[in-house]
Amino acid sequence: MSEAMDALIAVMARLRAPDGCPWDREQTSASLARYTLEEAYEVVDAIERADLLHLRDELGDLLFQVVFHSRIAEEAGAFDFDAVAAAIEAKLVRRHPDLFVPTAGAVRITSAAERLVNWENIKADERRVAGVTKQSAGPLSQLDDIPQALPALLRADKLSKRAARVGFDFDFAAQAADKVAEELDEVRVAAAQNPGEAPSAEVFEEVGDLLFAAVNLARKLGVDAEAALRGANGKFERRFRGMERLAAARGIEFEALGLVEQERLWQEMKRGE
């Protein structure tokens, strides 16, 4: 291990020592979970902004979370950082057999698409083995080990991918698009039948079905739904802030404008991009 990594692990041990930092000593893996998620999102943000300096810092923050969780587990007698590193090293070797443990006649994988298929096949084999060794956990499912805590769009994508592996999938993206249109019609019908201010359980469910169908369409088109929505969020924010600036520059109170006037500003922002 590098000197820098050893030093970081030593810092973590000092923070968790009996006479260490009170806040760090109070933390559990459960209490740290939200910070770990926040740090992961900050890494993604730095990548999307192509900010390499901040990416270095954010990767350090995320690495510290890994070291923190590992230290807590070590104190509980479960595992330490070395075990974490060894586990991921073993997994990478296991899932790249043509590179690390080639057998006679083995075909070398040369494309990313082939690698992805092979990776998923090996993962499926691992799930089957886990199903045999953990009978008490219930019957084996293609949907096993997809974390509940994933962002909803990302989890929907993973669920539909797993289902597609065993043939539960549309043949063409156009069919997935038709499903989106069908689900949208069902939202409209449910909303018309439940015109109250608060959404009914039926409207709630139909909107969820619509979003799931949209994620499935994105998958069929080869689009990362989570990244696409982040992009749409950024575009909306950029245009909305631009509308506010235009209104202010013209001495107009944006909030006082009607929807028609606001839409004109929106179109003006679109044309200017």
Written description of the protein model:
This protein is mostly helical. It folds into four domains: 92 residues, MazG-like (Helix Hairpins); 35 residues; 72 residues, Helix Hairpins; 44 residues, no CATH class. The chain is 72% helix and 0% strand. It contains twelve helices and no strands. The model has no long low-confidence stretch (mean pLDDT 90).
Question: What is the strand and helix layout of this fold?
Answer:
Blueprint: H1 3-15, H2 22-26, H3 29-48, H4 52-75, H5 81-94, H6 97-100, H7 112-133, H8 152-165, H9 173-193, H10 201-220, H11 225-249, H12 259-272
Helix pairs in contact: 1-4, 3-4, 8-10, 9-10, 11-12
Count the strands? 0
CATH architecture of the largest domain: Orthogonal Bundle
At the fold tier of CATH, the topology name of the largest domain is Helix Hairpins
User: Proportion of β residues?
Assistant: under 5%
Helical/strand content category: mainly alpha
Query: Termini, distance in Å?
Result: 49 Å
Figure out the total of helices. 12
Shape: globular
The CATH superfamily title of the largest domain: MazG-like
Q: What Rg, in angstroms, do the CA atoms define?
A: 25 Å
Proportion of residues in helical segments: over 70%
Total separate domains? 4
Unreliable spans: none
Kindly state the mean pLDDT as a whole number?
A: 90
Instruction: Give a quick account of the main beta sheet: strands, pairing sense, barrel closure.
Output: none
Please provide the ordered H/E string of secondary-structure elements.
HHHHHHHHHHHH
What is the top-level CATH class of the largest domain? Answer: Mainly Alpha
